[in-house]
Amino acid sequence: MGIIEDYYDNSDQRNAKPMASYMKNKFPYLGIPKPKRKELEKSFIKQWKKKREIYWEFVNQCWELPEREFQYLGVDYLLALKKNMVYTDIKKIEKLIVDKSWWDTVDMLAAGIIGELCTRYPYLIEEYIMKWSADENIWLKRTALLFQLKYKDKTDMEVLEKVIIENKDTKEFFINKAIGWILREFSKTNREWVRDFIAANNLHPLSVREGSKYL
Question: Does a structural domain hold residue 155?
């Protein structure tokens, strides 16, 4: 696709090294800053939104390409077309979560895509979210914690409590950080619940510190 060539044509090695360094050198980068990426993808995504269908071969291609900007492109594409997703697409998203995993893509997929799917198909919470919460893969666990990040007063507190309790006794940074993040975000909606929950449970200090910021 032309957008792939456009990305390569706009690569900038002066930016690539520091961008990769910021992400712990997990992936190579083209060196395209976010504003430039958004500019390059704007017309491409606009065209696809008119088609009202998701071209999964393109998303998979984005994940197969080595440079990290292509995974960002794949996520931006899915976010733009998320209203066209159906419940079976959660299996495809699960594969993206566990492949080339790092917080930058996982968090957007969790809050932006999985959160949307679970709103429209609540039974996916029992079928997938609770299963992911108990999975050995930390990125599936993190997704189970963060999928309600944008739910506000629609947050299922019972589910939130279950996934936090199941994962609170860990030394894994990305899990404890996610627990604190979801609690902090939900405290904007229900401060009393978050305060009581933190007081009643022996959470990791990182989770407490993050979750208490607005208390």
Answer: no
Crossing angle of helices 157-167/173-187, nearest 10°? 150
Q: Which of 59, 48, 109, 60 is nearest to 84 (CA)?
A: 48
CA of residue 212 relative to chain centroid, distance: 22
Is residue 8 in a domain?
yes
Q: How far apart are CA 21 and CA 17, in angstroms?
A: 6
- pTM of the model as a whole: 0.96
- What is the distance between the alpha carbons of residues 128 and 182, in angstroms, rounded to a whole number? 19
Alpha carbons 8 and 131: distance in angstroms, whole number: 39
Question: pLDDT tens-digit profile of 8-17?
Answer: 999 999 999 9
Instruction: Give the domain extent around 78.
Output: 2-150
How much is the pLDDT for 52? 83
Q: Which residues contact 110 (CB under 8 A, 6 or more apart)?
A: 97, 142, 143, 145, 146, 147, 149
User: What CATH number has the domain bearing residue 134?
Assistant: 1.25.10.90
